[in-house]
UniProtKB/TrEMBL annotation:
Coiled coil: none annotated. Keywords: Membrane, Transmembrane, Transmembrane helix. InterPro entries: MFS, MFS_dom, MFS_trans_sf. The chain crosses the membrane at residues 12-34, 46-66, 78-96, 140-165, 171-191, 228-247, 268-294, 300-322, 334-355, 367-387, 407-424, 436-455. This is MFS transporter. It is a multi-pass membrane protein. It is found in: Membrane. SUPFAM superfamilies: MFS general substrate transporter (SSF103473). The keyword Membrane applies. It comes from Paracoccus aerius.
Length: 467
């Protein structure tokens, strides 16, 4: 059996790589575009939080259902539909005259991204022989890391090069052109996949899952914008019955559920979700707020802001590479990564108030250190979650981890912008950003403390077993 894909399959794999990359690069590109959007549309941090959080919220709601849709209706078909929706959302975003239409277009892009991402992962076994699949997954992961590195730089370059009248809209036009290229390549080179898997999750289960995430995350964006009216709290309270319905439907569906109950009986997997929420969720909101502060307070151009913050995603790549070469168990690496991440956030907190446009190198170094710690942390948390899972649960586990990442990202952006907006009332932009950093410091510090306690308990049990 040939371990390498045919030339046609290889070109099909390229479309998967580019499709995954554009869904990942979107968030850091938007972080660079936020100040321009706010200035052009006259928006404060509250409405910007709604626009910024719309995309990851919708992805989090639909990621697991979209994966099952690929099984049922065919992965190639769902991939193409997702790309078309992403393309339409990008075009509507570029043409949006106001914040409401822009937020709606971003939600449409989120639907497309949710449909694209799980298909890209799941189609690898169809394109590669078993012995070549690990290399394909590695290339997919490297492409995602590269996209996160290039996203801020590409966004900054587009905004600097675009005419003044086009501005931030050039980013969405570029995304639309890239999505069109992906769809043409995929329709030409990806072999049809009929799907037709029997069973699957029921509509009520999918609806209750999406509703629970919406009720949990949306109030974090809506509350600060509308001064926390009663309906926001009612929406938050509605998460409990939605979660109860989902839990009941999950128990009835058994192994066919969106999140199989046996998956939640794996302690290492459950702890990985906790670490995703506490530690891996910290950087997205920090990254968005810092991009705003650098441009509004220091007067940096979008490209200059992208160059300053590029150290973080570059560090993520280096930290991810280092993680696999440390002779430590996953939990020990999680403890090390979260400790380093908390320390680097403390360093950046101390650096921010004294920054000037001509003295940026301390922040560049701090961003690189934080990125390296983040790369070590996220890779170790992923390995902790997938460690020991049987093959039948691996797909569901990966989908649940991706979903938790998206939920955490949306919550992080909403909370960080809310704290930053409140601090701006009495502080300068950089001082407000430093105040916001206490949110990241506290969550990563809690994650580090938890990992150290778990390590201690695990060591104690191991000693008792050996005795």
């Amino acid at each position: 059996m040939n371990v390498y894909p045919t030339p046609g399959a290889a070109r099909g794999f390229v479309s998967l790589l580019i499709g995954m990359a554009m869904t990942i690069a979107d968030v850091p590109m938007m972080a660079i575009a936020m100040p321009g959007i706010g200035a052009d549309l006259g928006l404060g941090t509250g409405p910007l939080a709604l626009i910024m959080g719309a995309y990851p919220l919708v992805v989090a709601m639909l990621l697991l259902p979209a994966g099952q849709a690929g099984d049922r209706f065919g992965r190639r078909r769902v991939f193409l539909v997702g790309g078309t929706l992403f393309l339409m959302g990008a075009l509507l975003s570029a043409l949006a005259p106001g914040p409401l239409l822009l937020a709606g277009a971003r939600m449409l892009q989120g639907v497309g991204a949710a449909a694209l991402a799980p298909q890209a992962l799941a189609m690898i076994p169809r394109l590669f022989a078993p012995v070549a699949q690990s290399g394909a997954f590695a290339r997919l992961a490297m492409t995602g890391s590269f996209a996160s590195v290039c996203g801020p730089l590409v966004a900054g370059a587009l905004m600097v090069a675009a005419p003044v009248w086009l501005g931030w809209r050039a980013i969405f036009l570029a995304e639309a052109m890239l999505a069109l290229a992906v769809m043409l390549l995929a329709s030409w080179r990806l072999a049809p996949h009929d799907g037709g898997t029997a069973g699957g999750s029921r509509p009520a289960e999918i609806a209750s899952f999406a509703a629970a995430i919406l009720c949990l995350v949306a109030p974090l964006s809506l509350g600060p914008v509308f001064s926390w009216p009663a309906p926001v709290f009612l929406l938050l309270a509605a998460a409990l019955p939605c979660a109860a319905v989902f839990a009941r439907m999950t128990a009835q569906a058994g192994s066919a559920a969106l999140i199989p109950p046996t998956l939640l009986r794996k302690p290492s997997f459950c702890w990985s979700l906790v670490f995703l929420l506490l530690a891996v969720s910290a950087p997205p909101g920090f990254f968005v707020v810092l991009s705003l502060a650098l441009q509004s307070e220091l007067g940096l151009s979008p490209l200059q802001a992208g160059l300053v913050t590029a150290g973080f995603p570059a560090g993520v790549v280096a930290g991810s590479w280092t993680s696999g070469r440390l002779a430590l168990q996953p939990l020990a690496r999680v403890a090390l990564g979260t400790l380093l991440l908390c320390g680097s956030f403390l360093l950046i907190h101390a650096i921010l108030p004294g920054l000037t446009p001509t003295h940026l190198w301390p922040l560049r170094a701090g961003m690189l250190a934080a990125g390296a710690a983040m790369g070590l942390t996220v890779t170790s948390v992923m390995q902790l979650g997938m460690w020991g899972l049987p093959k039948l649960l691996a797909g569901a586990g990966a989908g649940a981890i991706q979903t938790m990442q998206q939920v955490s990202m949306a919550a992080s952006i909403a909370l960080s912008l809310a704290v930053y907006g409140q601090a701006l009332e009495t502080q300068t932009g950089l001082e407000a950003a430093a105040t916001m950093m206490w949110l990241q410091i506290s969550t990563t510090g809690a994650a580090a403390l938890l990992a150290l306690v778990m390590l201690r308990v695990s060591s104690f049990h191991q000693q008792r077993t050996e005795a």
